[in-house]
Amino acid sequence: MLPIPAVKSSVSTRHFLSGGQMGAFISGHDWSTTSLDPVGEWPDRLTFLVDVMLASKVPMFLLWGPDRIFIYNDAYIPVLGQKHPWALGRGFFEIWPEVRDQIQPVIDQAYAGQSSYFEDKAVVLHRRGSPEQTYFTFSYSPVHDASGQVAGALCTLQETTSKVQAEHRLELLLTLTDRLRGLTDPLDVINMAAEMLGQHLGVSRVGYGDVDETARYFSTPRNWTDGTVQHHTGTHDLTAFGPEIHSALQQGVPLIVRDAEADLRTSSPGSLAAFANLETRAVVTVSLIKQGRMVAALYVHSREPREWPDAEVRLIQDVAERTWDAVERARAETALRRRESQLRLAIDAGRMAAWTHDAGTDTIITTPELNRLLGYPPEAQIDVTELRSHYYPGDRDRLTAAAMAAIERGENFFEVEYRFYRLDGALRWFLMRAEMDLDRDRRPTRTVGVILDITERKIAEEDLREREEELRTALDAGSLAIFDVDHIAGVIKSSPRLNALYGYPANHRLTVEDIYARFHPDDAEQTRGEFRRLREDASVHQFDWTLRLLLPDGSDRWVNGRGEYIRDEAGRVLRSRGVVMDVTQHRQAEEANARLAAIVASSPDAIMSFDAAGKRIATWNKGAEALFGYIEAEAVGQPVNLLVPPDPVTGAKVKSGAFDQTIAQGNIRFEAKRRRKDGTLLDVSVLATRMTDAAGRVIGAAAIFRDITERKRWEEHQRLLINELNHRVKNTLATVQSVTSQTLRNSRTMEEAQKGVEQRLIALSRAHNILTRENWEGASLTDIVMGAVVPYRHEGENRFQVSGKDVRLFPQMALALAMALHELATNAVKYGALSNETGEVRITWTVNPGADGPHLHLVWAERGGPPVVAPTRRGFGTRLIERSLAQELQGKVQLAFEPAGLVCTLDAPVQRP
């Protein structure tokens, strides 16, 4: 907090005239447009604080009131730049909106009563029309009013942009010097310098290059960009930027253009076109003058207008000098290395040892180098006879033959390669070149020559032959054809095998268009487009493509090409080379496998395979997931007996014999029970087949599982129905026989017998109809009752009252009850309640619990008929009801011939179907 003494101010508009330029501005400012009163009415603390600020030589400004009105001193004017004096009396962030995110928390902290201090804080200001990176050391102090409340904030600051930039510049130059010191390739030096400078300045492009002796043409082999502009390498004409700029560069004056469109030196159509081609609006170019001549230049480009502070220009000049020094050093070192290499080659070549042979004395004069070459001490005198004993067997004859052949040709010079055992026993290859002095008879008198050790070359040649043979063998084995395409000249180095792959004669001179002509018409446009994309993508160096050809005989051929693109620095393809092979069979196999996989995947049947080695599930399709409930991830890798139910007694996992049987027999069919994931069992039919690889080795088994649970259920149902039908037919025939026999025996006439048999058979038929509808699995009691009484019910009458909760009866009980109800109804029509016009029958039943299960209690009660008298004898109907029904139902039947009407009571166990 800044302490402020209580000071009285005089009310005068000239109060701050002693405060320099800003004192006059503050005194004369129209403060009515702000929240402040006229200067003469300002609070004492504000007046005192402004007096202190105006008297200071340190840049200061004051923020006052809730609107944070901006008041500053003369020392702060340079900081404002073009915003002075407009900034006076405005809100802080109206003046500096670009720093709101950075500075507002600091100001809020001051207004909260807390001071702050920052050193060399980086701030981007727009004080001269464009963004400018600046650095400040500053502090904010809260200012209190007379009541002790914070009324404003006082900021004291010092711009440290030059200091920080100088430190950054020094750091960059030191780092650059260290990095350049370790580089030996001039291009690496240029790349490093351009990249470091470009990233430091945040520009679009940086490049360095040489200027020719005319100081007109500038050549840059590489440049750096930030990715927003294109690279511009090659040779450029400096005169394209105008004579004024060209002349300045020749004199070593830096070219500084802040905006090419606004700079009079670059506003001509030609200059603007040159800048547009470079995608550049601002540039600094520093020329290097050595021995009075422009020899190189370093340029820095910005695609947007940009201010170039003096510190940046000085940095660019320093980098240019260091780059020059490093490039020249690297070039000198490169030249030195080249000369040293040439010297080493000359020394190596100089190892050719000289010698002279005198044919008359058969002696040899050697040199120390020859002695060392042959394995002798440098100063040793070599005996010719001893020397000749070291030739590889037969090779001295080759040497002599070469000399004689030269003489026969009329020449005295010969050259021959031969093998020689050094004194230490090492076998070496030598190249001898010799010139012979011949006498009149053309016989050698003296021979002078040199010997060169070519052992390493011969070893390399042998290795090369072996590699070529290995390559030839590999190409033959893989049916591979080599290709090498010169994309600049449009020439293909073809071979008979390559020609054959594309359907051309072996001696045909293959061209690019010949290859394009073989592209399958359905794929040609797409294939050409893909090749064009690969060539134009500078990041692609390796390629691997597969395409379809249409051969002259109408057949399709698939070929695969693999190789590399050789590109120049701009990414343009110069050459492509690699191998091509026929993959038609492989492609057809892939398509067949894909079709098979699609069939397997889409099949509703469960299809799976098992590997022979581990006896585990290898594949599992969607049909298997649906049938067995396991998803593929759960099933694959499980044992082959995953689906086999456990032993019902022990619960132990049962081993599957089906897999081993399939492997042994080749294929099997069987039906079995298998267990789903949820534990339920289902019946399946299985077709299992042994699988082998191309060599005939057994690799596993494949199986198709089909759910036959429903079929098994129907088969069992059918079997039961057949058995039931057989049983029912026998029972029915027995019933028919009994009914017929009893009716005939108890009938007085044939007409009566015929009618009785027909009625009883019809009743039996109705019960059969009901059971047939229910597949003989049982019948509804209600249906049986209603079927029995329906022949005796007439419209407009309600002589039958039926009540009771429906219950299912097993077939035997249903038939017996239907026959009994028929007899009761027939008897009622003849003698009972249905024999007059007023009688009625009530049929009721209930199902009651019993010791052996539920019991049916059914009552047939007649009322309103003629008076009932108990019969003197039991007829067939009565016996059928009393004895047969009770026997069939294993229950009790009671007939009561009460005066009011017959009552039949049935009580029998309900055996549910």
TrEMBL record:
It catalyses: ATP + protein L-histidine = ADP + protein N-phospho-L-histidine. The lineage of its organism: Bacteria, Pseudomonadati, Pseudomonadota, Alphaproteobacteria, Hyphomicrobiales. It comes from the Bacteria. Residues 339-410, 467-538, 592-647 form the PAS domain. Residues 118-172, 414-466, 543-595, 668-720 form the PAC domain. SUPFAM superfamilies: GAF domain-like, PYP-like sensor domain (PAS domain). Pfam families: GAF, HWE_HK, PAS, PAS_3, PAS_4. Keywords: ATP-binding, Chromophore, Flavoprotein, FMN, Kinase, Nucleotide-binding, Phosphoprotein, Photoreceptor protein, Receptor, Repeat, Sensory transduction, Transferase, Virulence. It comes from Microvirga arabica. PROSITE patterns: PAC (PS50113), PAS (PS50112). This is Blue-light-activated histidine kinase. Its EC number is 2.7.13.3. It is an enzyme of class 2 (transferase).
